[in-house]
Amino acid sequence: RYTRQAATLRPAAIAVHDDCNVGGNSRRVKSQCQLAVPIAGRERFQQLHHAFNPSYTVGVAPSRIPAVLRDTEGLVPPPFLRKLSLWLALASSITILFSIAASQISLALALGILLLSGLPLRWPRVTVPLGLFLVWVLVAMAFSPDPRQGMAQVRKMLVFAMLLIVYSAVREVSEAKWLVFAWIGAGTFTAGRGLFQYAADVAGAKAAHTDFYLYYIADRISGFMSHWMTFSGEELYVLLLALAFLLFARDLKTWSWLALPCAVVVGLALVLSDTRSIWAAAVAAVFYLLWVRD
User: Is 85 within 8 Å of 113 (Cβ atoms)?
Assistant: First the structure.
């Protein structure tokens, strides 16, 4: 049975949540502001509102609003976690040029802070083929005669979390630009160390009165790494970043004085490293950059 009756309206206080950061494709919450707004409504409306909107506090007396604020503030991640995840992501990306251990420690910390920060997780487009490749590695290990020998490689799969961390934590063009600058600068520094190592090898070969190629080929320049292939692979990425900046940057005139000498130093270190496979990869990558630019 339904009987139409006149409803007696009376003011009721509700807590209105405002995340103070509406807009964009981000769930970032800088701070949580709540206002006590008096509305007119019947008891039935209040019950329905509370049932379908449990995040709102309906029927809260004005005297209890400060307590409600204290209760809900704990649900919002502190704003500093976003900055901390960004700095850890940058630290992990840059320290890889100097220390693999330091980079992976920063990587693990950055992943944990990112999950606590409340930032949306963003994956690059290469995630699907890369995930299929990793799954295929696990399948191959499962059918191998001695799967235990492959456990070390499984642990190294954590390194691929760098894609998730950087894509999620680095969210602005300015942040990405400074990451590129930091990589170019750090890569140039490690390349300079490699040049000093080459000069020391030349002096050592002369002092030993031996052929330089035989003296050098077994212990080539490696920068801060333990092997010249690791050093050459890292310097290849630094060179490509510098060349991409010189080819595509809008503010080229402002920063060309820095990027061009860095590219020369890194390129010279790659030539002196005598890693022919890296040379071939560098030539192919440079042709690709020129093709994309045209």
Answer: yes
